[in-house]
Design goal:
By secondary structure, the chain is α/β, with parallel strands linked by helices. The protein is built from eleven helices and twelve strands. Among the domains are: about 10-115, Rossmann fold; about 260-425, Heat Shock Protein 90.
Length: about 425
């Protein structure tokens, strides 16, 4: 059936009549009217023609030998390929019974012979239009059903995704709660540990001072009575007392980093470095160290902690020196939203594979020939991280080291404080 051109010209009409004259007359009339016409003389040929190429409409005679029009129409309506073809009966039989039977077997109209040409054309055009609209409606319904199925599938997929998302959110919420609880436990544990370290360090200093005092008295008063071996023992006691006192002092400073809540303020790094150099005056003089620095920026931070940071890093560069005099240079550059500081020296350096270990507390890579406690660089990392930065080292054995650390700019510090204030409202 030609669904693309169902109306008017080029509509395909199949005429079925066992009388050749009737076929010829009706065919000529329809062709002149612009229809494409096929004509057959029997019911069998009508079925074959309709099955082969379904027409847009069939004009069917009733009285035919072997298979009458009723049988032909009944067969057409029971086959899927031809059931939607409109069939108009054309017959000389004008009894009501005949018409009722024609409609009962599936006919859409009934034209009585002899017929009026205008009536035939009007009825053909009407049924062609009706059939076209029916087919268009069915096509739209099919498309609508397909669209509904697609939407249902999409909604089902969306519901499944929403359910997966809900489960993922619940899982993440549970994970965040567990992580928050673990962080709280860790914070309490660290606080207890730092408090213990502070108390222990403070309480250890008193008996240590007593031991140191008695050892000094023994050295002054009993030097003549003791032999050289015993005097060496006393010297070792005094040396170990000094080293232990240094260890306790640095451990106490490390423990107090989270306890002392000094206000953040705008700091001149030039002044901080000068203060650190004054504190290291003896070490600088004894080692003939040369310390230089470029103009340094102003930062937001805790004054005492940054003095300690610069003092530890410069002191570390002096401590791990080579034969030649230490040369140390400080500089800083602005990168995006932070300052990148560097402290470069010409010391003994370290192997790159140990660069991550030196910032862990009590980690020492060198022998006792180099004084140190393994706390200074751990303190540096803690200070830098408390101010929102990070610290690392680039070094090569025998070629010196460069310590790097970052400090957020003033604007970045303000932004972070605003975010924290929003996240933790009063």
């Amino acid at each position: 059936m030609n669904s693309a051109q169902p109306l008017g010209n080029l509509a395909d009409i199949l005429i079925v009549d066992d009388e050749p004259n009737n076929l010829r007359v009706l065919s000529n009339l329809l062709k002149k009217h612009g229809y494409k016409v096929r004509a057959v003389l029997s019911g069998d040929r009508a079925l074959a023609a309709a099955r082969s190429t379904p027409p847009d409409l069939i004009l069917l005679d009733i009285m035919m030998p072997e298979m009458d029009g009723y049988q032909v129409c009944h067969q057409l309506k029971h086959e899927s390929a031809t059931c939607q073809i409109p069939v108009i009966f054309v017959s000389a039989k004008d009894q009501g019974f005949d018409k009722v039977k024609a409609f009962a077997v599936g006919g859409v109209d009934y034209i009585t012979k002899p017929f009026q040409v205008e009536e035939v054309f009007a009825r053909i055009d009407c049924h062609l239009k009706l059939n076209y609209l029916q087919m268009k409606l069915e096509k739209q319904n099919y498309q609508l059903q397909a669209e509904i199925c697609q939407r249902n599938a999409a909604e089902k997929a969306l519901q499944e995704q929403n359910e997966q998302l809900r489960r993922e959110i619940e899982r993440r919420q549970l994970t965040e709660l567990a992580l928050e609880k673990a962080n709280q436990e860790l914070a309490r544990s660290n606080a207890d540990l730092e408090q213990f370290a502070g108390i222990a360090s403070h309480d250890l200093r008193s008996p240590l001072a007593t031991i140191n005092g008695y050892a000094q008295l023994l050295q002054m008063c009993g030097k003549e009575q003791l032999d050289d071996k015993c005097n060496d023992f006393v010297k070792q006691i005094l040396k170990l007392c000094d080293r232990t006192d240094l260890l306790i002092g640095e451990l106490l400073s490390y423990a107090r980093l989270n306890q002392v809540q000094e206000p953040l303020q705008l700091l001149s790094c030039d002044r901080l470095v000068q203060q650190a150099l004054e504190n290291l005056g003896t070490e600088i003089y004894q080692n003939q160290a040369q310390v230089t620095y470029d103009p340094l920026p102003e930062i937001i931070g805790t004054e005492s902690q940054f003095v300690q940071l610069f003092q530890n890093l410069i002191g570390n560069a002096i401590k791990y020196r080579r034969e030649e005099s230490p040369r140390i240079h400080l500089s800083a550059v602005l990168q995006d939203n932070h300052y990148l500081f560097s402290i470069q020296d010409n010391g003994i350096g370290i192997d790159e594979e140990y660069s991550q270990y030196i910032f862990q507390i009590f980690k020492r890579l060198h022998s006792q020939d180099y004084p140190g406690t393994g706390i200074g660089l751990a303190t540096c990392r803690k200070i830098v991280e408390r101010h929102g930065g990070s610290i690392w080292i680039k070094s090569q054995v025998g070629q010196g080291s460069t310590f790097y650390f970052t400090v957020p700019t003033e604007q970045r510090v303000v932004e972070r404080q605003m975010i924290e204030a929003i996240g933790h409202p009063n």
